Amino acid sequence: MLPSLPGKSTVMHQTNAIIMNASEESIFEAAANLERWPTFLPHYRYIHYYQRGPVRNLVKMAAYRGFIPIAWVSEQIIDREHREIHFKHLKAWTKGMKVIWRFHRLPAGVHVEIVHDLSFRVPPLAPLAERIISGFFINSIAAQTLQYMKAYVEKK
Question: What is the pTM for the complete model shown?
Fold first, then answer.
């Protein structure tokens, strides 16, 4: 691996969050049930399961960023005890990225956040890769996911 440039970060950190007015349980279950995502998240093209289980799934996820189709393979871990959903990207440009969905009850609703962390494999390219991966793709898709999920759980 190449050394990082002085003063330049080789780690991408992106957080998207929203307040949803539904029960924490219904929000958590909607987020955990990937199979249903394409039915209420119109930017998701499909979810294909390679392995399926009650706690761990191996999936290919496909979405649109605007008109650009993207896809990636992830391991999903559903942690009901700690109310977190973990993803680890296993292939494509985001290989190694860790994603955590967290849910926190507040007086005004449930604070739902999606945190993306990625250590770039080629550190000198990190500034460019971060603008493309985080700024252009992740921020847009995660923001849409939260907005559409909010609409879905709040109308139930």
Answer: 0.88
